[in-house]
Records
---
Amino acid sequence: MTPTNDSEAAVLTETGELIQLLSSDGRRRSAPGYDQWVADIGPAELLALHSDMSVVRRIDAEATALQRQGQLGLWPPLLGQEAAQIGSARSLRPGDFVFSSYREHAVAWCKGVRAVDVLRMWRGTGLSGWDPYEITMAPLQIIIGSQTLHAVGYAMGVTADGGDDVSVAYFGDGATSEGDVSEALVFAASFRAPVVFFCQNNQYAISEPVRVQSRHALADRASGFGVPSMRVDGNDVLAVMAATRIALERARTGGGPTFIEAVTYRMGPHTTADDPTRYRSEDELALWRERDPISRLEAHLTALGHFGESDAAAVAARADAEAAELRSACIELADPEPLSVFDHVYAEPHATLERQRDHYRRYLDGFEEVGS
Ligand SMILES: Cc1ncc(C[n+]2csc(CCOP(=O)(O)OP(=O)(O)O)c2C)c(N)n1
């Protein structure tokens, strides 16, 4: 469905059919070709999706507070992008491998990463927070777009091994302006790699609006690479799920890559070091608040008669408990031994790194001499 009113059109990228199964006020809409992909999602599954989104929103708020209190160096909030992340990641099989950027806390949540393990890097106590092979999710990527190349390489490896797992690359609208993403799309198309390109178009690359970066809907770019694409309402968890399931199935059955543009909005700052009031208006924010992914699903469940005060209280209690646990676990994270920063850079001994380690050891020893 294309945007219908002027204000909506002003914020969304132009053209391109927008797949939607839940309207902004929570009414179920029919989308031929997509409905059957979520036919198994009944009230219990919807409640579980609602709980996931609510808990990760609460965890995100707690992490933002921890950063403001000096407990984290930086934090990139996901506020507003819960449906895009939960809807897609809850569609994955455990063996499907995720290559994300730095804002995919909800994807990590679905993969089974403990919330405190996401915080390790942002607190500076670890280079990464989990074992990528155990979790089937690579460490967070800060270099914009390069994880799409890793995802394609991994997917080609899966094919070479005769497997049917899929790799999924998560990236932002800004990343589509990077050469790495174009290279990844070329390779994926050429080798029919079983990979899903999941672009969260949250409307901004820091302060750069997507409408300045692209004259077309981002999903429209994919066809130039020979990659089929879908443009989905990223604040509609059901629509995201349907689109992701279609893409995963295509990849698993030899159909190659798919590009999904999930049209969403980052309601918070780019990171806690950013002030979004300098580049976007209150009106724009208000418009997107009306499309909030969680209240939309809540309205839908309420209309179905499956969400009442006790459900709201249970979700809030779970979210608060997770946040409290996160807070104490974060504050208790032990500082690492300083020289351990060199431990996992290379698998084999490396002369330059050894020199750096030695230099840093002598630098640290210098403090002891001053103190003695
Ligand atoms: C290769 C590269 N160039 C520039 C940067 C600096 N940078 C960090 S975040 C960002 C914007 C990314 O925007 P987008 O891809 O839309 O993702 P979002 O943060 O909105 O999720 C930029 C330019 C970087 N990390 N890597």
---
Amino acid sequence: MVVGDISTGTDVLVIGGGPGGYVAAIRAAQRGLDTTLVEKDDYGGVCLNRGCIPSKALITGADLAHEAGNAEEMGIHADPAVDMAQMVGWKDGIVDRLTGGVEKLCKANGVNLVKGTARFKDENSVRVAHGGEGQGSESIEFDSCIVATGSRPIEIPNFSYADDPVIGSREALDMDTIPERLVVVGAGYIGMELSTVYAKLGTDVTVVEMLDDALPGYEDDVANVVKRRAKELGIEFHFGEGASEWRDSSDGGITVVTETEDGEESTYPADKVLVAVGRSPVTDTLGLDAIDLEPNERGFLETDDYARTDIDHVFAVGDVAGEPMLAHKAFKEGIVAAEVIAGEPAALDYQAVPAAVFTDPEIATVGMTEAEAEEAGFEPVVGQMPFNASGRAMTTGHTEGFCRLVADEDSGFVLGGQIVGPEASELIAEVALAVEMGATLEDVAATIHTHPTLAEVVQEAAENAEDQAIHTLNR
Ligand SMILES: Cc1cc2nc3c(=O)[nH]c(=O)nc-3n(C[C@H](O)[C@H](O)[C@H](O)COP(=O)(O)OP(=O)(O)OC[C@H]3O[C@@H](n4cnc5c(N)ncnc54)[C@H](O)[C@@H]3O)c2cc1C
């Protein structure tokens, strides 16, 4: 023990107060375990402070401004002026309410909250450095530990986040003025969401991507709907180009230089360059050497079906435990880890993890694609309903995209779904429930859906798979 250390003990120590960690801590405390949560920064982690929630707040703000300014067809003539500082302030208010709520919920459930950075001393204790001069440190002994330290943005060579014109997603959510020109490096989901926000706010957005397409991992016909709309919004794409450096330019802005695999250079003028090339797990500050636990070659802590690492009483959840790096996957893993520690028969099941991209239109998927179903040995049957055949979609002015259901032809079990279109992120919940509970196409088709709603597209996709569709032609 170092001078000034105090030492305490706890049944469960949770490191990191993001969606994985705070949910794990609350559930462990609910199960009667003495639980301590150590967070070095803000409760709510990336999700509440600089990820899911703030990005969705700005997406809503940018959507409203854009819709209001583009609704002549509906007889609305407006030219909205956006006060970006005020919009960011509104977003911060939401973040404050939610992060304050997490702290209150933890306390109300009896979780002991400790502010500081935790580092393993050995397999049953950590030292927590409180940070700041004279604030000292404390040792905490534990029976079980849940590591939930999350992830941070990847930095690429020559684009240091310390340089003012280079920004990551965090800074992109905190700009109090709207840049005239933005180069976005990376066309994954974070790059595409933020490109859409700024394009709608009037920024000239250029996206450069090393791969030959946007939104890798999504089927072509799904990603194409979003790319087409992005181009309509004025977003310019350059595929097969990696950002190599940036330099100041004579007009007071910057020039972003890109290079193809063959060494061909291009330059793009900008005021800011947003680097969104992915995130890497945070394990380097944990002192893992002290417990003989090594991340895998991608930097993640490997876990079994019970969220357990190679060390029996050390668990890992959320982004640090691997893909998909999504808040709801972190929630689920946190709950499973806590329940396993409490001796309950919990286990992870990843067959129905939905994923959503909040672009215009949104993409949301769950379970298997048709190709994945084939690969898994099923004989898939597919049903599809376009939003342009939905009365409700027409009344919202958004008719791009479709809902597709993939089912097993033999049994009718719904294996997955892909939705690209308005409110896809909400609609996917029905498909996720169908996959999770083993519902059949017939179950979905026979469920009476409210009319007129967007959710009817899910029912119609099921009917289409059974050649029973009324409002669209059967396959
Ligand atoms: C711009 C953006 C938008 C996103 N949008 C979505 C979305 O719409 N939907 C979705 O599902 N996901 C989204 N995500 C991803 C989501 O934010 C993450 O998957 C989620 O936050 C992971 O939760 P976590 O608990 O694993 O880690 P984090 O949220 O990263 O939390 C980890 C916490 O651990 C703390 N910590 C780290 N090391 C230590 C230590 N040694 N001691 C003490 N504390 C420590 C950190 O300060 C942090 O608070 C988005 C991410 C970004 C960046």
